[in-house]
Amino acid sequence: MKKRELKKELEEQIHQNRQEKIYRSKLNESNDNYFEILSELLSNPSVPQLLLEKFSENEDEYIRAMVASNYNTPIQVLKKLSKDMEYIVTDTLFENPIYKSNKEQIGEVIPSVEFESVCSVKY
What we know:
Helix content: 55-70%
Distance between the termini: 67 Å
Structural class: mainly alpha
Number of domains: 1
Radius of gyration: 18 Å
Number of helices: 9
Shape: flat
Oligomer: single chain
Strand content: under 5%
């Protein structure tokens, strides 16, 4: 690797680490606005992929859905989220353009049918 390429790669890593520190400090600022701040963070396409990976394992399905909607979420994380048992996660993933352009790699996701629609079906 040439010096210039190595320097550029190091600068990018430093930039990502700085961004991650900023995001972490934002999360620590206020527990009262946790969900609001987290929503802003996870919807940002420049959020580090490491954070998206971490939050994809969160117990809250709404947080996992935010990860599923982010265009920067790694393919392997989207693949894992495609098997999520919560419809809000898979429905959100289904709308992500990255999913649509990588269906073969991620796997098929069938958007859920709302409960009311299922209940209204007459036999």
